[in-house]
């Protein structure tokens, strides 16, 4: 049985609003919150919500929990956060964080990711570390978005040739935080928007992430090649102090891009 609870942090008497003035996490245990009369205390959710922002925490969020089974980490549905990556960083493997708005969203190379509230799918998955996780997440996101979404190395989603989303993976020895953002009802100039219901896209993405995060390296590489908009075309690869142009021929065994026989493990890629 799956129930959905809605908690408002600045509402009384549920719980007092909290001001977080340090970067340390504040844990709010649902076992200390008021439990609806329809749910017995024996089946009360034991999920943990973690806030890691330096501003006043006036969040409205939802916690999705399974009752009575608690073998899966909760999905935290947040209002405004600095970044879903910031919240997810302190959660257990298996956790998922979504938000309506990010005040400090970012992509690769510390580039800003901005969108008006409620106009994009903003989600971070806490997963087991994997060298090919960025490519696996790209495959999962492309499949969730639909057949017209293609992949641009290393971490972009393209819709009709324009960027519609991106992926950011932050790795530690213990876990990986995989952030995915997709423009839905708004896009900056020159970008694309998908115009799909957010909850439906999230449901498909969650299912595809479970599949591709567990896939073998060979399966990930083969599927990425099939969804690629980069392979087979001329590209420019820019690195600090060096620019290379050539044909993107293939992926290497660890996901590196092969351009005219040279392997690139990082770089900003432009389709020519």
Describe the protein's architecture and organization.
The protein is α+β, with helices and mostly antiparallel strands. Helix 2 packs antiparallel against helix 3 and helix 2 (133-145) packs across helix 4 (217-227). It has helices at 84-88, 133-145, 198-213, 217-227; strands spanning 2-8, 18-19, 26-28, 49-51, 56-57, 60-66, 75-81, 96-102, 120-127, 149-152, 156-159, 162-171, 176-183, 234-239, 242-251, 257-259, 262-264, 268-271. The protein has two domains: 2-230, Bira Bifunctional Protein, Domain 2 (BirA Bifunctional Protein, domain 2), CATH 3.30.930.10; 231-272, Roll (SH3 type barrels), CATH 2.30.30.100. Strands 1-6-7-8-9-13-12-11-10 form a nine-stranded mixed sheet. The protein is globular. It contains four helices and 18 strands. The chain starts with a strand and ends with a strand.
């Amino acid at each position: 049985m799956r129930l959905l609870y809605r908690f408002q942090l600045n509402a009384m008497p549920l719980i007092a609003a909290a001001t977080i003035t340090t970067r340390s996490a504040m844990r709010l245990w649902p076992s200390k919150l008021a439990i609806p009369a329809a749910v017995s205390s024996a089946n009360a959710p034991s999920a943990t919500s973690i806030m890691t922002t330096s501003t006043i925490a006036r969040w409205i969020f939802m916690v999705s929990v399974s009752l009575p089974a608690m073998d899966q980490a909760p999905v935290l549905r947040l209002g405004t956060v600095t970044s879903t990556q910031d919240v997810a960083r302190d959660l257990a493997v298996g956790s998922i964080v979504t938000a309506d708005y990010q005040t400090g969203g970012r992509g690769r190379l510390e580039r800003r990711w901005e969108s008006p509230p409620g106009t994009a799918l903003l989600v971070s998955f806490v997963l087991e570390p994997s060298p090919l996780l960025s490519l696996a997440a790209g495959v999962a996101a492309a499949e969730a978005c639909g057949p017209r979404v293609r992949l641009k190395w290393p971490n972009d989603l393209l819709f009709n040739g324009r960027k519609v989303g991106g992926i950011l993976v932050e790795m530690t020895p213990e876990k990986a935080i995989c952030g995915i953002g997709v423009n839905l009802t708004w896009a900056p100039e020159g970008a694309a928007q998908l115009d799909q219901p957010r909850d439906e896209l999230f449901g498909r993405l969650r299912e595809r992430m479970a599949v591709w995060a567990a896939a073998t390296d060979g399966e990930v590489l083969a599927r990425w090649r099939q969804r690629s908009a980069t392979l087979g075309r001329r590209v420019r690869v820019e690195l600090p102090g060096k620019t290379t142009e050539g044909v993107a021929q293939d992926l290497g065994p660890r996901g590196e891009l092969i351009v005219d026989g040279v392997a690139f493990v990082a770089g900003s890629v432009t389709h020519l």
